Amino acid sequence: MKKRVILSENQRERLVDLRRSGSSINDLVQEFDIAEVTAYKIIRDLGAAAERKKHVYLSSAEKESLVESYKDGADTATLAKEFNVTREVVSRIANSFGVARTRTEANTKYSLSHHVFDEINDEATAYWIGFLAADGSIGKKNKIKLELATKDHDHLEKFLNFIESDRPIYERCYGHPSVVVEFYSKQMVQSLARHGVVRNKTFKLKNHPEMHSSLIKHYYRGYIDGDGCIGHSITGGRWTYPYISVLGTYAFLENMQAWILDCLPGVTKTKIGTRRKISAYSKCAKSQTPAVLELIYGNASIYLDRKYEKAVEIFLGEG
Which residues in the chain show pLDDT less than 70? Predict the structure, then answer.
């Protein structure tokens, strides 16, 4: 049984809109982390409320005001709430004034550098492809989503700066509190796919994409920032040896370890464990772990702050 999740009013409205746009109940259950019966109840309740809103009459002046706001970039959800109508009514009024927006046009309300992932030719690009390979999500209709823990809000800001976007960051309070940015870009999805970041990538990633050898460390740092853990093992209530642990497919971790061994001949090979199709690379050694962390985090200019600080603390011998 799913843990009960309480959705905000905006989240409930978004769920209904997604359903009307063709999303399946299963998609909605996964998107909002709710039970199937809850999804059906929200759709039923808000559907009845929407029927009542359909009968709200807007004067000519109100319609003109709505259309002007729409032309200025206001989204349908905001206008629906402001004028107490449904999103469909907002779109219909805009269409009657000859002001229709396609999904692509609506998406251009915010800036976005669509070609930023075309080529891997610098540290930042390699890093963010690695990070998206671990923590990003590619959805239907060229949707890209990045959702992080609330404490990593600043890292999401770094991502938006990299893709040159002024899109807002949304907070989600159900389940584990998180911050989210999502957008649509066919060009970006195509570029990411060439670099191994595809839909349902969890069990598909096998190796880092092709890039100059000097950039590989940045790719792996991005991946580890997304799907790795850095710290100290604890014995008898006390910190002992430093460790780094990374999750992924067996093939991906084997290739990552091969790269580490090639760069650091003094580091010994470690067994990669697998459980329920998910594998884990772990290195826990007094001298070898700091060396691995320095290889990946040394002289870095982009990173997840909290992991970078822990890594530097370890390889400088301060922790």
Answer: 1-5, 20-22, 46-56, 72-75, 100-109, 174, 235-239, 318-319
What DSSP line would sit under 240-253, residue for residue?
A: EEEEEEEEE-HHHH
Q: Are 124 and 162 in contact, with CB atoms under 8 Å apart?
A: yes
Residue (of 188, 169, 160) closest to 104 by Cα position? 188
> What pTM did the predictor assign?
0.69
- Measured between alpha carbons, how far is residue 34 from residues 2, 66, 152, 160, 170 in Å? 7, 34, 24, 29, 19
CATH architecture type of domain 226-315: Roll (3.10)
Pair of tokens at residue 26: 């299963």
- Asked if residues 254 and 272 have their Cβ atoms less than 8 Å apart, the reply is yes
State pLDDT tens for residues 57-89. 778 878 887 887 777 666 677 777 777 787 778
Tens of pLDDT along 162-194? Answer: 999 988 888 877 677 889 998 888 899 999 999
Contact, 312 vs 297, CB < 8 A? yes
Q: Where are the domains of the chain?
A: 9-103, 226-315
Answer whether 106's CB lies under 8 Å from 75's CB: yes
